[in-house]
Amino acid sequence: xxxxxHPKNSSLVRYTRYLRWYLFGVLLAIALFFNLxxxxxxxxxxxxxxxxxxxxxxxxxxxxxxxxxxxxxKNLDTIAIVLISSAAEIGQLWVHGRSFDPADLLANSFGIAxxxxxxxxxxxxxxxxxxx
Length: 132
Prior knowledge:
The protein is mostly helical and 132 residues long. Helices cover 67% and strands 0% of the residues. The longest helix has 27 residues, at 102-128.
């Protein structure tokens, strides 16, 4: 039995549950740290700032999808991730050397939306095209 076709009965999914939630927590903590630190972009001069925001929150949302697997990401989870990324962006108002940028907020939202689209596609394919 393959774990992606019958994930609720899979020992691999059961045993990695806490590890997947730990990964999500670590990625969320890293995202919040870099969003609220005074000069996080010094090591990332090659990549465009908006791309950093996009990939950061796409990775956090992807980790949430992995943590929730085999269940789907709920609407409440989506609202929570959007609110957390918005709060981190607004929190930059109180960090020395940082400022609020609506374009960063938009990049965060696009990253979250793209990861959600990927996870919904994966769940759709898993449900409709599994071998059993």
